[in-house]
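Hi Y.,

Following your request, here is the sequence exactly as I used it, all 172 residues.
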Amino acid sequence: MIRTRLLSPFCLILLVGCLLPGAAMAAAGQQPPLTGTVTWVYDADTLDITPHGKVRLLGIDAPEKSASDRDQTFTRLGILPKRLRTIHGAGLAYGISNVKGKTVTLTAGATPRDRHGRLLAYVRLPDGRLLNRLLLEEGLVIVYRRFDFEHKDDFLAAEAEAKRRGVGLWTR
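Below is the corresponding structure, written out as tokens. Let me know if you'd prefer a different format.
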């Protein structure tokens, strides 16, 4: 005689409760949040997060370490070229002191990876604050205007406020 063991109603409810949020998000076309530990900070908008690898913060753009054609994006917004290298260093230092070694939550965007294979994500700190937005508030990055993304209007407002306050890239 073969005995079949059924799950108790409590176990079944618990199982469904654990699976449902991820399934509902997938059905809605959203990626469920991921977690990981920041192991390296390349610059203000690119981190290495174990176990996900290189992560590009969605919706923002940081100045590069060396002068390049990308500087034009910043100068078109009225940012002086001499500020870019200084702010690159400040953004790197901000990431190292405030993010490195922390466990963060990532939410991938509609397009999960960029052409370089990096995960595109919003990154939440352990206290729930959105790192992408914090960097804008500090004037360490600008809004990436080339593509639409979920928080674009909010990010533009945060950038405008940093500009109004004259912080970071917007120092007068």
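The longest helix spans residues 9-27.

Thanks again,
Q.
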